[in-house]
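Long-time lurker, finally posting.

We've been working with Neutral zinc metallopeptidase (Flavobacterium yafengii) and I want a structural starting point before designing mutants. I don't trust myself to interpret raw outputs, so I'm hoping someone here can both generate the structure tokens and explain anything notable. Sequence follows.
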Amino acid sequence: MKWSGRRSSENFEDRRGMSSGGKTIVGGGIIGIIILLLNVFGGENAQMLTPILEQMNQGNGAPTEQRALTAQEIEEGKFIESILVDNEDVWSKIFQENNMQFTNPKLILFTDAVETACGNATSASGPFYCPGDQKVYMDLAFFEELKTRFGAQGGDFATAYVIAHEIGHHVQTLLGTSAKMRQMQEGKSEAEANKLSVALELQADFYAGVWTHYNQKMNNFLEDGDIDEALSAAHAVGDDAIQSKIQGHIVPESFTHGTSAQRKAWFMKGYKTGDITQGNTFAELE
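Top reply, 14 upvotes:
Generated this for you. Predicted structure of Neutral zinc metallopeptidase:
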């Protein structure tokens, strides 16, 4: 994808040169893998990690060391920042067109572990959005996992899709969709609550598609194969694909993010229409 030449963003923070010497958050081995699989593209479900991870924490968590970023890390940061800027521009335009005011989210790159308003998390949680501080958190090591463990194609637009999905959760927070969903989950069975979670996640995929539609019109940034990269990533993190790979069978009532087919379909609907009014994923629950 074409991404160079974008302006810098005031809402981007790169913490990859910082280490939390006093804190060890256990995220490796089988525990880390399970958390990653259950919370990939965590969205607001990342808050579910807090009690588990806090029990694993040791130390006071104060950053004690800092190192210079490598040339590759600096280039990666510029790319992530360009995607953030494009999201800021697109969603500001969409909100303005609908007589609303868009508040930019922040995006934090980290390595290994991070403290958020939603609690502590590790890279094993996957990229996630925290509504408590309206920030997206990402460890770029996730994208290697996406390729090697989940069989995704990889590529720069796969990363762009993930970022756009998480910012889709920020849009849901601003529109009140997330809060309404949590209210709807109250008193529901686990299976019914999971269906509402799926609808929220699929809508974030739809919003990622809407962002792609607008950004293509505004910046002509897509290149051959970019949409295939996004669809490959969406397929790899479908609940059915993950469960089939890990446990050999699927349990639909336990889905929290949607099937591979659903995730790809809603992304493509957003991309083809560019119309936020067509993203009512909750209507399909009725």
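Before you design anything, note these points.
Residues 240 and 259 are 5 Å apart (CA to CA).
The beta strands are 12-14, 18-19, 65-66, 106-109, 113-116, 119-122, 128-130, 135-138.
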